[in-house]
Amino acid sequence: MRLPQAAESGSFTSLRVGVKGKTRAMPAQPDDDLARRYRSLEEKVRPHVETEDAIRPDCLITFPYEYAPHGAEVTIETAEFTCLCPWTGLPDFGTLTVRYVPRESCIELKSLKYYVMSYRSVGILQEDAGVRILRDLVAACRPERMTVTLDYRVRGGLHSVVTVGHPRSQ
Predict the structure, then answer these.
(1) b/e string for 127-141 if b means 16 or more Cβ within 10 A?
(2) Could you tell me the residue range of the domain that residue 60 belongs to?
(3) What pLDDT sits at residue 11?
(4) Residue 136 near residue 60 (C-beta atoms within 8 A)
(5) Statement to judge: residues 97 and 123 lie in one domain
(6) Which listed residue (32, 58, 59, 85) is catalytic?
(7) For the chain, how far is it from start to end, CA to CA, in angstroms?
(8) Would you tell me how many other CB atoms lie within 10 Å of the CB of residue 149?
(9) CATH number at residue 58
(10) For residue 47, how far is the Cα from the chain centroid?
(11) What are the backbone angles phi and psi of residue 61, rounded to the nearest 5°?
(12) Pairing outcome for strands 161-166 and 74-84
């Protein structure tokens, strides 16, 4: 495949694209029909974006922690965190890491999985998702301290990592 070459073609600039020895002119700007078809495509496949009301903190289950004086740190990580951009409806994928020192209770892992799954159709800003997760988990297990990190996949050439902690001095 050859690299595209710019060429003047009539009243607009075009690109010449070559594949297997064949070339064809590509307009520099899409025509009105193509632009209309793209808009139609976005309307057809745009997922239904839920509000934060769809997040299910009631899924979170805890169990008693018998070794509180030892101050063990628990780390839970999943690469399956997904939510939606509230403006475009496009998915945001990321790795969620929860680090906490339990006080009297621990988070049951299967319940955490269901809680995380409740985000998959929710339109929420990346920063807000981190704060919301921290708030819900702290309310569920009342830890000595907790840090939530959402490490999002690159989108639009930008990499975002959101880290929030409890207590706030963390």
Answers:
(1) eebbebbbebbbebb
(2) 52-166
(3) 40
(4) yes
(5) yes
(6) 85
(7) 53
(8) 19
(9) 3.30.1130.10
(10) 15
(11) -120, 140
(12) unpaired
Number of structural domains the chain divides into: 2
User: Which tokens belong to 28?
Assistant: 């520099």
Judged by phi (left if over 0) then psi (alpha if -120 to 50, else beta), residue 116 lies in alpha
Query: What does each of the 170 residues of the chain score in pLDDT, given as a tens digit?
Result: 444 444 444 444 444 545 566 665 655 566 788 888 877 877 777 778 999 999 999 999 999 999 887 889 999 999 999 999 998 888 999 999 999 999 999 999 999 999 999 999 999 999 999 999 999 999 999 999 999 999 999 988 999 999 999 986 54
Whether 106 and 74 have beta carbons less than 8 Å apart is answered as: yes
Global pTM reads 0.75
Q: Are residues 94 and 27 in the same domain?
A: no
- Residue 124 is predicted with a pLDDT of 97
Catalytic one among 59, 83, 92, 106? 92
The owner of tokens 């639009």 is 156
Q: Is 58 labeled as catalytic in the residue annotation?
A: no
Annotated catalytic, 85? yes
137 within 8 A of 100, measured Cβ to Cβ: yes
Task: Compute the distance between CA of residue 158 and CA of residue 155 in angstroms, rounded to an integer.
Answer: 5
